[in-house]
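We store chain and fold; thus.
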Amino acid sequence: MKKNGFDDGNITLLAKGVELKGEIRVDGTVRIDGRLEGDIYTKGQVIVGEDGVVKGTIAAGVLISSGRIRATVTASERVQLLKTGILMGEVHAPVFAMEDGAKFQGTSDMGVTAWPEEAPCLPGNVPEPAGSRNRPVALIGTESDV
């Protein structure tokens, strides 16, 4: 059953006060409220709570953080830093959102592969829409009528 945006049936929790050095590999949601020095791999969500600290690598579908992260982050869907979140490192994700107050230091890559030099051209034999062409305007009457 889904509540609060994540699957309650498959959660891996690192509780506040718990410290772990190592690697976490799961299919579902990972919530970090303790300290992890290592790597997290999941196709699901990684949620880092306000007391959570992660140092290492995070590869997930979605990362939502209000804690502290020093890592290389790769998310297939999005990364979201909440107002108390701090992220130092690399972010690779198609969407990277930050609330006011969140802090980020590092580099981000949102998948742009080229800088478009010109606006895209329409394929051959497709006329330009008439609404985008300049048309002459004729005024009828005198300036005092306007």
